[in-house]
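wait is this the right file?? whatever heres the structure
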C-alpha cells in the first residue's frame, strides 16, 4: 500500500528524463548519452535528486523509476538515432537485479519500441546495498548473454573498484568525477595522473572501455585523451538536458570542434 500511494503521488508530478551528452574521443563526436531522472514539484521547483532517490528506495519504488526511465529512452530512440546517438546509458538500481521478473520487463519494453539490446547500456553502482551478490551476478550475466552491456559507475569511489571488474562482466568503467577534478589540483594531480594511467591501461587490456565523468575544462579533457580515455562526460561538454534541447545540442555540436561547448560550473543537481 505504501509503495502504491507513494508512486502514484509521484506520477502526478512532472517527471523528466534528462539526457547528458557523452563525447566519443576516437570518432570525435557525441554519439552516446546518459539518461538521468528528474522530478518537479507542483510549484515548479525541482526535487533534490539524491534525496528523491533515497525516498524512492525507502518506499520500494526505485524499480518503478528504473522501468519508467528505460521506457522513456526506448520511446524516443528513433529521435535519438536521427541525430547520431548510437546508445543510451540507463541507470538501474541494485535492487532492480534482485527481482528476476525484471529481466522479462526489460525485454517487453525493448520489444514494444523495437529497440536493440546494443542501443541500451545499463549503469550500476552502490554495491554496498547489494545483499545477494550471486543473484546480481546471475542476472547481469543473463542480460549480457542477450546482448546488453553494463558500465560500472563512479569507479574509484566507495564500493565501485577494481574488485568489481573480476566479479561481474562489465564492458565499461566510468571514472568518478572526483578523480577528474584532482587532475589539476596541485600536488594531488601527479598521483591522480599516475593512478588513472594504470586504470585505463588495465581496463583496455581486458577490452573494457573507459568514460571520464566530471569534465569541466579543456586541460582535464586533454590529459585524459592523452591517457587513452575513450569517452568524456561533464559540464564542459553539456549539462543534462531535456529531450528537445538535447536533440538540438547534438545536431549543432557535430559542427563544432571539441571543447567549443560552454563550460558550466559544478552543480549539486544530481550527477554529471
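ok assuming it is, sequence goes like this
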Amino acid at each position: 500500500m505504501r509503495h502504491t500511494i507513494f508512486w502514484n503521488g509521484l506520477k502526478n508530478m512532472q517527471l523528466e528524463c534528462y539526457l547528458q551528452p557523452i563525447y566519443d574521443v576516437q570518432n570525435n563526436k557525441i554519439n552516446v548519452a546518459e539518461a538521468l531522472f528528474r522530478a518537479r514539484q507542483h510549484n515548479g521547483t525541482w526535487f533534490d535528486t539524491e534525496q528523491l532517490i533515497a525516498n524512492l528506495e525507502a518506499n520500494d519504488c526505485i524499480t518503478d523509476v528504473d522501468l519508467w526511465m528505460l521506457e522513456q529512452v526506448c520511446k524516443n530512440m528513433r529521435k535519438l538515432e536521427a541525430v547520431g546517438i548510437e546508445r543510451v546509458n540507463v541507470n538501474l538500481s541494485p535492487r532492480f537485479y534482485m527481482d528476476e521478473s525484471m529481466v522479462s520487463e526489460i525485454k517487453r519494453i525493448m520489444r514494444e519500441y523495437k529497440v536493440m539490446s546494443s542501443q541500451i547500456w545499463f549503469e550500476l553502482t552502490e554495491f554496498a546495498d547489494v545483499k545477494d551478490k550471486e543473484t546480481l551476478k546471475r542476472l547481469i550475466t543473463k542480460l549480457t548473454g542477450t546482448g546488453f552491456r553494463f558500465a560500472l559507475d563512479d569507479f574509484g569511489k566507495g564500493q565501485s573498484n577494481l574488485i568489481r571488474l573480476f566479479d561481474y562482466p562489465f564492458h565499461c568503467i566510468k571514472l568518478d568525477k572526483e578523480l577528474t577534478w584532482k587532475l589539476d589540483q596541485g600536488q594531488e594531480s601527479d598521483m591522480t595522473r599516475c593512478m588513472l594511467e594504470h586504470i585505463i591501461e588495465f581496463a583496455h587490456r581486458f577490452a573494457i572501455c573507459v568514460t571520464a565523468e566530471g569534465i569541466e575544462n579543456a586541460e582535464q579533457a586533454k590529459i585524459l585523451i592523452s591517457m587513452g580515455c575513450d569517452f568524456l562526460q561533464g559540464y564542459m561538454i553539456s549539462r543534462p538536458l531535456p529531450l528537445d534541447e538535447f536533440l538540438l545540442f547534438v545536431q549543432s555540436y557535430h559542427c563544432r570542434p571539441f571543447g567549443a561547448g560552454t563550460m558550466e560550473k559544478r552543480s549539486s543537481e544530481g550527477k554529471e
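Residues 259-272 have pLDDT under 50 and may be disordered. so i think its the right one actually
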